[in-house]
Amino acid sequence: MPMSFHMIGGAPDPVAPFSHAVESDGWVFITGQMPFTGTSVESGYPPGIEAQTHQVMHNLGVVLEGCGLSLADVVCVRVYLTAFEADYEAMNRVYASYFPPRRRPARTCIGVSGLAKGARIEIDMVARREPGLA
Predict the structure, then answer these.
(1) Which of the ends of the chain has fewer CB neighbours closer than 10 A, N or C?
(2) Which domain holds residue 101?
(3) Is position 99 within any domain?
(4) Cα dihedral across residues 78, 82, 85, 88: positive or negative
(5) How many domains in the chain?
(6) Whole-prediction pTM value?
(7) Is 16 contained in some domain?
(8) Torsion angle, CA of 24/26/27/30, rounded to 10 degrees?
(9) pLDDT in tens, 14-67
């Protein structure tokens, strides 16, 4: 099965040379999204980690939907925080609201020294398309 490279209308423009998602053999790798409030990478971020986490999850949802998927198809998540100690608990409260307690993807959360465009949070995902639903 050939790879598919997805650029999704309505998702924030890339800040670097990448696709919004790449699919191979039913696995869909969603590029990390930041809390842009519009499609322009100059659109800015909402204030506070809670609002930024919601915005990142919204942006990821746009990419997933553009690929014909949803959060229910996500199997693995990586969260990157620049202010880990300050933002971890609040981010977790918001993040947890997007997945049912008994159906949460595997996850890693990493404290980093910086993210593109000064973001406080970035999240990437891996999703799995059900066989036969391409």
Answers:
(1) N
(2) 4-128
(3) yes
(4) negative
(5) 1
(6) 0.94
(7) yes
(8) 90
(9) 999 999 999 999 999 999 999 999 999 899 999 999 999 999 999 999 999 999
